[in-house]
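[stage:ingest] chain + small molecule (magnesium ion)
[stage:ingest] validated
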Amino acid sequence: MIRAVTLDLDDTLWAIAPAIVRAEQRMDDWLRRHFPAVATRWSIPRLRELRDRVAAEHPELAHDFSAQRRLSLRHAFGDSLGSDHHAIDDGVEAAFVEFQHGRHEIEPYPEVLDALARIAARVPLAALTNGNADLERLRMAQHFQFSLNAREFGRAKPDAAIFHAACERLGLAPSSVLHAGDDLDADVRGAHAAGLTSAWIDRHGKIEPPAEAHLHFGCLGALADWIEANTPEQTSSPADKARGRRDDADHLRHRQGVR
Ligand SMILES: [Mg+2]
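[stage:predict] done
[stage:export] tokens:
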């Protein structure tokens, strides 16, 4: 029996590539206004290459896209502004803020908001992401009990440890938790190896699902259909649930009581 769902965010709830393009453009516009010397030397494609290089040279930051981007900016600012450390620190932080604004201008896939509400009405829902999206900022946090990201946790999917940390916070064994996401390695194989039920959200439908995908859906709405068909209806309202989680033992007793 599935008693909770963990969900990937980027490319599962929205397309991330257009948001990154918008974020890069927004940061570039800002650099042109405030730090033209940086913008001239570091065009969008050059900054992208620099970020890839920083990521390759710093495997210890593989779980932290924000740190990779800040370090790339630090390099670009240092290269353009020399040794003015205060100006570099301030510029890097302000440029990163601009990037993050653009990164949060996302458009959820059409069925997503409805599907999140349907899933959350049945089982506790948590976000499990390697990215740096902020659900509060995206006004989607109300559907999620918590959001666990690789930057805070210190390890990224597909590491089993981050899946197990999410299960622990849900107060459930991995075998009772379903993880859904678009990425075959990070989400599907990672969840499978960690002992969760793995669901591949595949919007393209071009390849066969791998053996590690226990379930396979074309969109989040299809996952919501499956959850509704395979979990009992809750008698408490979403508003009751939103009032806060009981401790794990109470929570389990409550769930058993309503079943
Ligand atoms: Mg993803």
